[in-house]
Amino acid sequence: MLNENGYVEMFTNMMSEGFIVIDSQGTIQVYNNKAKDIFGISHNQQISHEAGQIKNGDIVIIGDNAIGKDDGNLNSSSLKYIGIDDENIKKGDAIIAIGVYNVEGIKPVYLYQKSKDMTDTLKMETSFLGIDIGVVIDFINKIITIEVDKQKYTMTYINYIGHMVILDGKTNKMKFYQSQGYTAKGESINEILKGKEYRAKGENSELLNVIGKNIFEIHKSGSTIKEFYEVAKGKNISYVDEFKEINGFPTMCTLLPVNSQKRRIGAALKVEDISEIKRVLRERDEALSNLEKIEKRLDEEREIIEAFPNIIGESKEMNYVKKLALKAAKTNSTVLIQGESGTGKNLLAKAIHENGPKKDNPFIHVNCGAIPESLLESELFGYEKGAFTGASSSGKKGFFELANGGTIFLDEIGEISSNLQVKLLQVLQDKSFYKVGGQKKIEVDLRIIAATNKNLEEEMIEGRFREDLYYRINVFPIWIPSLRERKEDIYPLVENILPKVCEKVGCENKRISAEALNLLLRYDWPGNVRELENILERAANLSEGNTILSKNLTIKVADENKYLDEEILPLREATRNFEKKIIKKVLEYYKGDKKKSMKALDISKTTFYEKIKRYNINI
User: Fold this and answer.
1) Reported pTM
2) How far apart are the C-alpha atoms of 29 and 437, rounded to whole Å?
């Protein structure tokens, strides 16, 4: 149809994005090299094996992080091929399994984990029929490793993956191992267990030729591929740069119909691998590495005090926040500040700007949650004259344009609608945008700081926040702890806030009694520092003398000996709080000795450092 000579293949193989064209019957006409790279079709394996098929008596080793998700719809019935008959194993469970194919009397070895009970890793080390076998599913780093007699077969994944190694039942030699692109090759666990022949691997093995095959042979029946096929058949769907998942790979897709003489003859799909996110993360790591070298030449404590005089608190948690903020200030990387309402995210964002290379340029604070959704786009990007009813006759500059050369602070970014998230992503990628009703591209040079009191990872899982946008703004994350997690900061906060409050209400400077201070220390502070400011202002107005007493504080402290409904926490949050407390206590006991702490806690190095990072524990 479209490829009558070699020019189309030559030109499409020069593209930096994947490019696929199908005709109106769904037959693949163009499938360039980049598309083959993205979906693992041209993956060149270093370990070789011949083409073949699973046979009775072969030893099968499986590592699957979610049964039925990206393994050819593996289920409990399929597991019976290797002797596993367990009705407790359900879809979505992770499993490690070793068994013999279609041979009765040899007991399989397996363990599984329910999807709701996932831990950091699932491991098995065993000797099966005299063969040393180890399997590790690392849920944190998203790696599955199968090791057979010290030979490792490793696969990384993004969401789900089904990994498998098959050993010849007579020689115990490897005859098949799973590799990237198995969906396109039709070599998922379930397909292999049901007798599907597999292709050879190695430098001299023949690459899979997809031209002339039906698109569903290569990409099964995902929603994006179904759309692709429907457009080729005549449906009017098209989009540009939308986040889609194909064969388990997160991609940015552009879908366009292909017409000839007003007749639909096919469709084209441009696919961009979101490995760009990995590049951004690498840039962040390089920036942090360079900053650590700078830190060694400076008196860090003095520098932090000078840089953040208005960020009050000397607790370990706040010192760590200020240390991160100083690092962030010295880069132009996008910063994401997270924390509960009232913890001081606005103050920290302004301080980062004032200590950065753009400090003499504008700092534009945008509260995304306070601006109606219908106005937010025009406020952010501006509009041309006559762009909409009620628009100013002279047009208007948006916040991004006003912040050019400086910093734009997107407060409560979790409130932005999904439609606006797409446009914001484009600005983050290209540092350019169009005004509402405009046709001229406006380029800006600015740094972006975002803040939210929402858990964006949960928002992303629920589909309310784009995954690609999350990775774009989460280049340099800073978590501000709640006031109840750093109560040792209450006294310096009171010392700093109280004189300002007295001046504001027009009274003489007041001090706080020891009894009142003790009451403040026993309170849980759901409103954090902002609530503390309000409580002190109210107390300054209520107190008759120069001393604020406990009776002047309008707060209620729960009886510590009484169990209250307010103390009930979700199990996940309670577990996190307990983990953090235990890790901090163990580190203090061993005076910061990480090796002894890991041994005492009986956790791996990877898990230890992941939890240190997650809970912002300063070591």
Assistant:
1) 0.46
2) 39
